[in-house]
Amino acid sequence: TILSRVNWSSDSEDSDSSGADCLYRVVLLGDHGVGKSSLANIFAGIQEKDANEHIGEDTHERTLTVDGEETTLIVMDTWETEKQEEDEKWVQDYCMQVGNAYVIVYSITDRSSFESASELRIQLRRIRQAENIPIILVGNKSDLVRCREVAVEEGRACAVVFDCKFIETSASLHHNVNELFEGIVRQIRLRRDSKET
Ligand code: GDP
Ligand code: MG
């Protein structure tokens, strides 16, 4: 499936980064266990009880209507693989290249995942230097108040430093998850519109 994805992505390369019919690839990044797949499943409308049937499905396509306009997002939950280490590096390099937008997820209950998020942001900036790609920093698991290790202010401050958007979500409570994906659509449009004028 990785190979078919590669072919498919190079097909659309000539149509700028956006694609003719408003198709955008959104790549989820972040440590294991922070909630990437949970967020992706909510986006795809997969119920938690059915999630097992969807294991292995790591790209989800959905058309959203935001501010009266339709946009199709392909959410890629491909950052983590169960493959060999060598393959993983390849897949992760690929992820860093193909996104039209990035969601960097950490868990507010896990400080090391917050530190990884910063590293991912730096890595992304290095790899996609000249491009002004939308990035959203996401502090997930906001429902776990008692286990919080990263304050909201820290997340917000980090986003300011890294020049990206910030939102806290709870995949468990479905809190702010739609807002997250709508936010991505708006970020993509802002950049598209400023290019046109
Ligand atoms: P991934 O490794 O980043 O794909 O993380 P998963 O989506 O597999 O989630 C890892 C674990 O955290 C699972 O047991 C989820 O049920 C749990 N989880 C994910 N999001 C939340 C959340 O917002 N709140 C709570 N309490 N648990 C969550
Ligand atoms: Mg996962």
UniProtKB/TrEMBL annotation:
GO MF term set: calcium channel regulator activity; calmodulin binding; GTP binding; GTPase activity
GO CC term, one of those recorded: plasma membrane
Alphabetic keyword roster: Calmodulin-binding, GTP-binding, Nucleotide-binding, Phosphoprotein
The organism's place on the tree of life at top rank: Eukaryota
Statement: the UniProt record of this protein carries the keyword Acyltransferase: no
Entry's family note: Belongs to the small GTPase superfamily. RGK family.
Subunit structure and binding partners: Interacts with Calmodulin.
Protein name: GTP-binding protein
Species classification: Eukaryota, Metazoa, Chordata, Craniata, Vertebrata
